[in-house]
Amino acid sequence: MPTLNQELGPLHRRLWVVLRYLWDRKGALASGGTHAGGFVFSREGLNRSNIQLYFTPSSYELKSVKPDPFPGIMMGFSNCRPTSLGSVEIKSASPVDPPAIQPNFLATEHDITEMLEGARFIRELSVTPQLATVIAEEIKPGLSIQLDADMEADIRARSYSVFHPCCTARMGAGGVVDEKLRVRGVDGLRVVDASVFPNIISGNINGPTMMVGWKGAALVMNG
């Protein structure tokens, strides 16, 4: 069964994809990379879903984003409420120096446990009748990887951020900003973005970030 690998593979196919998009805004370039998703419970006893799923009708190496030379799909996931805490620190007094950012991914047992549960759920999903008929084999990490220790090593080697950073300038008691998004101890300065979230939300942050923007604009307009 063909996937986007075939559309985005050979040079002449990529040229056709570009031309089609320029002509009628349709085709592979008119869609996002992730075509389906969902929220699931990785175990019983939870009162809300804790894993977000992602389905992509293509496969590629993350570093090069070069499609594999065969039909492929990717299924991924993230734990919705990670407990690992990173840091953002000023390195110097110079405004041109970038900050020191330490994501500190997978630093807690809770996060590792949920990532292992998510990985096993993906495997269970891949052998359902609906998907097993179109999946020839699992390439990464491969079915030889079964033990928790081996799966954890693979997760640490291949997992990456889904690029929804937030909560580095938390709002609330003891936080960086107050309820009107004013930076504590600095006159005339507000922070109006996802960094003011008190806690990470369960899914994609674009909607709540827009809400913060609208609220921040109103606060600025009203003084």
What is the topology?
Elements (H helix, E strand, L loop, with lengths): L3 H4 L3 H14 L11 E5 L10 E6 L3 E2 L4 E2 L6 E6 L7 E3 L10 E3 L6 H18 L2 H4 L15 H11 L47 H16 L2
Antiparallel strand pairs: 1-2, 2-5, 3-4, 6-7
Helix pairs in contact: 3-5
Describe the protein.
It is a single chain. The chain is of the alpha+beta class. The chain folds into two domains: 32-163, Glucose Oxidase, domain 3 (2-Layer Sandwich); 166-223, no CATH class. 30% of the residues lie in helices and 12% in strands. The chain has six helices and seven strands, in the order H-H-E-E-E-E-E-E-E-H-H-H-H. It has a three-stranded antiparallel beta sheet. It is globular.
Q: What is the mean pLDDT?
A: 91
Number of domains: 2
Structural class estimated from helices and strands: alpha+beta
Tell me the strand percentage band. Answer: 5-15%
Oligomer: single chain
Order of helices and strands: HHEEEEEEEHHHH
Please describe the structure with a list of short key phrases separated by commas or semicolons.
single chain, 223 residues, alpha+beta, three-stranded antiparallel beta sheet, two-stranded antiparallel ribbon, 12% strand, globular
